[in-house]
Amino acid sequence: MEQLRKVKPWTRILFSAIKFAVHQMAGTFGVPIFAYLLGVSLFNLEGLLGREYSLRPLHHILTETPYFPVQIALGLWFGWLLGKRFLHRSMIYVWVLPFLMLSYAVVAVPTFSAGYTSVLIAEQSRFSHYFGWGCQPKNHCLDQLIVTMPFYAATSYSIGAYLALKTTQVRTP
């Protein structure tokens, strides 16, 4: 028991940074990848039943819906599940880096519409570009997939972890 208390401060900081980095990757990129793999697996069940299927509805739900409901739901579930298991406080702060990236993009990055634009068409707002129907992958605009969706996934992951930490009682011997 004495050896556990003699951990050097720099190793504690290093382990905390590694834990945060792992949760950052899981919450920001793991959730969308898991959503895609889960969707493909469910659509493959249709193929096993002898029906012909298309992945187009899956792509529409996962990438062309600007509020990304599947990624948000899976982020909440994934964050709650891992938060209940690991009880790492660093999971709550996973939303910060994607938020900073989204804030920078909204403030500093100009929004261009893909394709031809007319002088008579009013320019779309940044809010519509990053949070609405203004930027869609079908129009060769990936800003929401690169910036907004990781923010939603990480935020829902953090909220799920927060709820798990608040509802889990730690047993003390």
**Number of separate helices:** 7
**Proportion of strand residues:** under 5%
How many DSSP E strands? 0
The overall pLDDT average reads: 88
Distance between the termini: 14 Å
- The low-confidence runs, each spanning 5 or more residues with pLDDT under 50, are none
Helical content class: 55-70%
Radius of gyration: 20 Å
| Topology as a string of helices (H) and strands (E) | HHHHHHH
Tally of separate domains: 1
For the biggest sheet, the summary is: none
Q: Which class best fits the helix and strand makeup?
A: mainly alpha
Shape: flat
Explain the overall architecture.
It is a single chain. It contains seven helices and no strands. Helix 2 (9-48) crosses helix 4 and helix 4 (69-86) packs parallel to helix 7 (143-167). The chain is flat, with a radius of gyration of 20 Å. The chain has helices at residues 2-5, 9-48, 56-63, 69-86, 96-108, 126-131, 143-167. With 173 residues, it is an all-alpha fold. It has one domain (10-167).
Question: Any key phrases for this structure?
Answer:
173 residues, mainly alpha
Brief account:
The protein has 173 residues and is an all-alpha fold. The protein has 7 helices and no strands.
Summarize the topology.
Blueprint: H1 2-5, H2 9-48, H3 56-63, H4 69-86, H5 96-108, H6 126-131, H7 143-167
Helix pairs in contact: 2-4, 2-7, 4-7, 5-7
